Amino acid sequence: MTAVQVVAVEKRFGGVAALDGVDIDFTPGINGLLGPNGAGKTTLLRIVATVMAPDRGRVEAFGADISTAQGRLTTRRNLGYLPQEPGFHRHFSAFDFVDYVAILKEWGDRKARHDEVRRVLSSVGLEAEMHKRISQLSGGMRRRVAIAQALIGSPKLLILDEPTAGLDPEQRLRFRELLGTAAAGSTVLLSTHQTDDVAALCQRVVVLLEGRVAFSGTPGELAALAGGRVWTATTRDPRADLAWVTSEGMVRQIGSPPAGSTLVDPTVEDGYLLLAGNPADRTADVTP
Ligand SMILES: Nc1ncnc2c1ncn2[C@@H]1O[C@H](COP(=O)(O)OP(=O)(O)OP(=O)(O)O)[C@@H](O)[C@H]1O
Ligand SMILES: [Mg+2]
Description:
There is one protein chain. It is built from 9 helices and 14 strands. The protein is an alpha/beta fold. The chain has 3 domains: 1-78 and 155-217, P-loop containing nucleotide triphosphate hydrolases (Rossmann fold, 3-Layer(aba) Sandwich), CATH 3.40.50; 87-151, no CATH class; 222-283, no CATH class. The chain is globular, with a radius of gyration of 21 Å. The model is unreliable at 279-288 (pLDDT under 50). Bound molecules: adenosine-5'-triphosphate and magnesium ion.
């Protein structure tokens, strides 16, 4: 079942094609978006979140065409959105800020609204800090306030632009657990630079490169792209497209392994690096 359908979407900024003919069917569950800086992830998420209109193409969310006013209204009522760089009223407390967002989301009943605000702030571990001013919170805590406002009302469509950026390891784990629960019955679109978040969280992953879909499939299928192409050795081999020294002091390499190499099981990161790190391969259509 398709929840959000993106068809032939294009968006240019001056001479730059931020999105250059993007087709994706997002299904219920957690969908990850990977891609290097400038690949078009934020542009795509902003378009689906109805913040910005595409130049060409169309987006349907749960059957509603978001190019129409009615479609945008329906979508916004179903939506929780974490922008990459949210603006805060820094003199607000975390509670007042999330409460303010809840008011904008038409939560009229004060008691029910305050219960919901406390619920979402507790779910991101801010029970103790919720009455502090946002200006006094750490960067990671502010990120969690921003995540909390996106969770108000358990939205059917949850769009999170780099939710784990700046979170400490414990909070990243907590976020994974939280999202596992929040995603039940809803559709989550999240962008990240953390391939281990994708492996741990996402049912599906889309890789964007230079405004185009370079891959769409499961994390396992992305990892499998690097099958038979990842090996370790004590020194760097000239046949490696990419190589780096691991914490064990071995050189992990991706490319064409020489005969007799020690092949290792590829990870999501290996598959992603193989796609993103090798411009010559970008024309290959690897979408299953
Ligand atoms: N408002 C804007 N005005 C001009 N150019 C823009 C604007 N927004 C995005 N771009 C350009 O569009 C391209 C895609 O940007 P986008 O922010 O979507 O990338 P991204 O994949 O989210 O990158 P990052 O990983 O750094 O967040 C970039 O070349 C960027 O410079
Ligand atoms: Mg971005």
